[in-house]
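hey so u asked for the seq, here:
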Amino acid sequence: MGMYNLIEERTNEFWETAQRTMGNCSDFSEFANTMQKHLQLLAGSSDSDCWEEALYEQWQEKQG
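ran it, structure tokens below
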């Protein structure tokens, strides 16, 4: 497996974890704090720069 594939796999794992975790959080702050524990999965990806913004978008979609 190449480095790119590993980064992509770990990034996908982060976002899948976010989807599963979202339902267990009462507000966005709790959600972001919980997901912060998983940031190592975004190492090397462009998502590492804007993860909180993207999480907020997911949170808003869930609330919609």
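Residues 3-63 form one domain. DSSP finds three helices and no strands in the chain.
lmk if thats what u needed
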